[in-house]
Please model this.
Amino acid sequence: MNKIPVSLFVVAFFGGIYACTHEGTYPNGGIPPPTVSINCHPDSVYFTNEVMPIIASNCATSGCHDAVTRADGVDLTNYTKIMKYVKAGNAPQSKLYKIIIDTDPGDRMPPPPLSPMTATQIAKIKKWIDQGAKNNFCIGSCDTSKFTYAAVIKPIMDNKCVGCHKPGNLGGNVNLSTYIGTKAVALNGTLLGSIAHQSGFSPMPKNSAKLSNCEITHVSRWIAAGSLNN
Ligand code: HEC
Model:
């Protein structure tokens, strides 16, 4: 699993150099690279690991707040754009937070018939904002010996996929909100094909960063062990 850290360090290192020499401009379309920590602190919420995937699958989707549709002029496809609706350190004063906790069906986001974000997702976004809404990323360690559905696979699906793959928004007619639906794509080969970006499959998650090697390893091990409901 050494591949992830090395490539990330390269990105972080050159991103850092670039940031110093070309103030205000960055290679990645003007988006500053996230600060990288080696360890994932259990009490911290990281933008790249957790917040961007939740927003990518619940808000920055086709027909909504992606760079093409920009519903109501709102584009939520990267950190800089998301920060227009966030008051760092103050979730209750942040538009992004206010609109996801709004219980009025006429105002809340995502709007009906889509389900609201889950309480866990809302809590993550609140904590990230209250912790300063940083553009941060953590590498963490990869324990490839643990890959049960409940503890490892379902959380990946919930945070990075379910927004576009649930009843009411069944991208490609794939339902990843249940074990049965996830098992179906595990068995027909499209789950691994799409997350590993193999040719012949639609690369997933659509419109956002590829899953980490650690996450792809977890999914492939879970499939190889029989895609159990464990
Ligand atoms: C922003 C919305 C979005 C997100 C996020 C997303 N998907 Fe998809 N997915 C789609 C759409 C739409 C399709 C239909 C095919 C297409 O348009 O590319 C699809 C198709 C698929 C397919 C069928 C692929 C094929 O080649 O037959 C699988 C499997 C899949 N997604 C799994 C995932 C997984 C796993 C994740 C999370 C890691 C994920 N998706 C995240 C929108 C999304």
